[in-house]
Amino acid sequence: MIDLYICLFLFIGTLAQLISGSLGIYLPLVAVLILYTAVSGGLVRGLVYAVLGGLATDVFAGWGAPWNTFAFLTVAVFARIWCERQMLRPVMVNFLPGLIAAAIQLVFVLVVKVGVGVSWRYLLGTWLPVFVGGLIFGALFLPLAIVILDYFAGRMKLPRYQDARKKLDSETMRWQK
User: Fold this and answer.
1) Cβ(41)–Cβ(2) under 8 Å?
2) φ and ψ at 43, to 5 degrees?
3) Which DSSP string do the residues of 35-85 spell out, in sequence order?
4) FRET label pair with 80: which of 34, 46, 105, 155, CA 20 to 30 Å apart?
5) CA–CA gap between residue 12 and residue 148 (Å, rounded)
6) Distance between CA atoms of 168 and 119, rounded to whole angstroms?
7) pLDDT tens for residues 100-130?
8) Quick one: DSSP state of residue 119?
9) SS3 assignment, position 90
10) Cβ proximity of 162 and 150 under 8 Å
């Protein structure tokens, strides 16, 4: 059931990111949703969906190399590190991992733009506002996504983002006894 739930919100997120990108608005939706998946569902599930979401985004965006896949894999690993070391409650402290997840994806996109050979004028005049806007969006979207997705996950008795730390602590304590 959890995989169906994750596929549903990742599909909607991928579709929304691709539609907004075709309109000239770059929103790192999938990176933030991969972070949510890797924290609430575990590292293995996060890595699997990072590959699936990354390949779907790369293919439908028309990229020749799997840059989004690499970015999403990095986000999934970061999410697990964040879950092990930081608090997940209250919801408002999660603006920072949302910002970092957005930054990871945007840095990979920046590498592609620089690799294509765009000018510094383009990077500073066009890409810098997109980068800053993407960071702000990621910082604001993750707390909102946590509230909405945790609500539905709780109603369906699925693992929640905010309960991931307790689950991780109980698994760690089990091996230390």
Assistant:
1) yes
2) -65, -45
3) HHHHHHH-HHHHHHHHHHHHHHHHHHHT-SS-HHHHHHHHHHHHHHHHHHH
4) 155
5) 14
6) 46
7) 999 999 888 888 767 667 777 777 777 788 8
8) -
9) coil
10) yes
